[in-house]
Amino acid sequence: MNLTPSNSSESKRPLILVTNDDGITSLGIRTLVEIAQTIGEVVVVAPNSPQSGMGHAITIGQPLRLYSTELFTEVDEYECSGTPADCVKLAKHYVLKDRSPDLVVSGINHGSNSSISILYSGTMSAAIEAAIEGIPAIGFSLCDYREDASFEHVKEYVRSIILMALEKGIPKGVALNVNFPKLSEEPLKGIKICRQANAKWQEKFDYRKDPYGRGYLWMAGDFVNFDHDKEDTDEWALSQNYISVVPCKYDLTSYEALESISSWSK
Amino acid sequence: MNLTPSNSSESKRPLILVTNDDGITSLGIRTLVEIAQTIGEVVVVAPNSPQSGMGHAITIGQPLRLYSTELFTEVDEYECSGTPADCVKLAKHYVLKDRSPDLVVSGINHGSNSSISILYSGTMSAAIEAAIEGIPAIGFSLCDYREDASFEHVKEYVRSIILMALEKGIPKGVALNVNFPKLSEEPLKGIKICRQANAKWQEKFDYRKDPYGRGYLWMAGDFVNFDHDKEDTDEWALSQNYISVVPCKYDLTSYEALESISSWSK
Question: Beta-carbon neighbour count of residue B262 at 10 Å?
């Protein structure tokens, strides 16, 4: 007979680290924190300013600032001057010290991070940084760039994906890239497990003059999907109003190319 | 009989775009430009300041500055306020307009970009950005962080790798991650084609106070190689005084994980 006082329901609550790239005050992270709190103990370490497009940048050669905040209720929360990847490193190795999160969730990003955008995405780089640390991780993004985008239609899916990740696990070293179609009249069709579509941004540069007569350039891209007819891709799933889930890894080796350049050794 | 005046030797000189992440004035890029000039027509678009650790960051929501410079001889050259990935985008879609480079070379980086460091590397992100554009690309890095690092022992290899890339080609969508051991008494043993070692940076944060009494943190990592005994990795090659060459791709899909999470669809 076990007489140890039971606080197992308390101690078994999973520890969920929440971060993002739109900054700690964005609606997307507030939505994600709210959902994560229904499932586990939540710690937030997120950038103090928008970090969209920061990719897997980290802050080297400069110090970082970390301040505790009071934006949420019953959450251990910090804003950081660094990038999303910095936030994960700081959370794991400084804020949480010896505790390792059961899950890292990043987002919900205001804007798509499907296909090639994963490379430029701070949201996904935070999730991939967690995967490097051996922590299960999910990046969530909504294909709606607006600051006041509606997240209502994705909440139940975010919750069920987090629960599935905690229950079934995510393979070691893998982070999930989850993208949601924007709110429309048609209900979401469900989840599709996909590969990353082969696509790129075809950039245009708009040349202008500043008030001092010096030139500057604005970058603006058109999205080009080379896999537009491929039904196994994230872009196709999103176009059909499915939620796309792409398992991602951080080994960039092109194993297919190893053989073709093997003659280079000498 | 063809009477057209022949300037084929001139017109066939390959167009080589050079960039880096240490900034346009660094010794590494000067060395790379010098080598590239012995092979082809060189255009330089490089950051106006150090961009180490910038990963695949791009500048969105802010304008870019681009100025022509006169640091090199007989080179069309520009410094840019953006990231290494921005430089490639600007070069391809603005500076070169309708011309596509035959090769993009990035570096030579002052410091290693082997194994996991590829994710944080501006040098390699520039090369990968070129691969996304369908341009053959190579990132060169020297495992010596010093500003005045000696590049003498790598020059002939850089040249022969560029020539091999131009002659034999690089598979579409692939960028090569080339790392050189630092100068030592032992001569380099040659080139090894490798995979990316599974490794990570185990971060430590040093807490200090600024002159105003506010806390700040310095990030400093120890490198942990989980593949230290694996002879097919870049880390092993470098430890044995080989030059490591890893073919890299920008499709992050973990195809191995697709099946294990396929039950998540509903």
Answer: 12
Residue type, A193: I
CB contacts of B168 in chain A (<8 Å) are 261, 263-264
Of A132, A195, A219, the CB nearest to B60: A219
Contact B256 A170 (CB under 8 A): no
CB pairs under 8 A between A and B: 240
The number of C-alpha atoms within 13 Å of A197 and in the hemisphere containing its C-beta is: 26
B101 falls within a domain = yes
Residues 6 or more apart whose CB falls under 8 angstroms from that of B231 comprise: none
Beta-sheet strand order (sheet of A15-19)? A66-68, A76-80, A41-47, A15-19, A103-110, A137-142, A175-180, A243-248, A191-193
Give residue B70's Cα distance to chain centre. Answer: 23
What pLDDT, on a 0 to 100 scale, did the predictor assign at position A91? 97
A211 in a structural domain: no
Closest chain B residue by Cα to residue A225: B132
Structural domain count, chain B = 1
Shortest alpha-carbon distance between residue B169 and chain A (Å): 9
Contacts of A64 in chain B (CB under 8 A): 205, 216-219
pLDDT tens, residue by residue, A89-98: 999 999 999 7
pLDDT tens figures, B92-143: 999 999 799 999 999 999 999 999 999 999 999 999 999 999 999 999 999 9
Judge whether residue A237 has pLDDT over 80: yes
Single pTM value for the model: 0.94
Provide the domain limits for residue B103.
13-197+230-252
Residue A218 lies in a domain: no
Neighbours of A75 (CB within 10 A): 17
CATH code for the domain of B165: 3.40.1210.10
Q: Using CB atoms, pick whichever of B216, B250, B255 lies closest to residue A63.
A: B216
pLDDT the model gives residue A2: 37
Q: Is A150 part of a structural domain of the chain?
A: yes
Q: What does the block give as tokens for B151?
A: 């590049």
Q: Closest chain A residue to B244 measured between Cα atoms?
A: A265
Q: Which residue carries 């280079």 as its tokens?
A: A264
Segments of A131-242 assigned E as strands: 137-142, 175-180, 191-193, 199-209, 215-225
A266 pLDDT band, cuts 50/70/90, is low
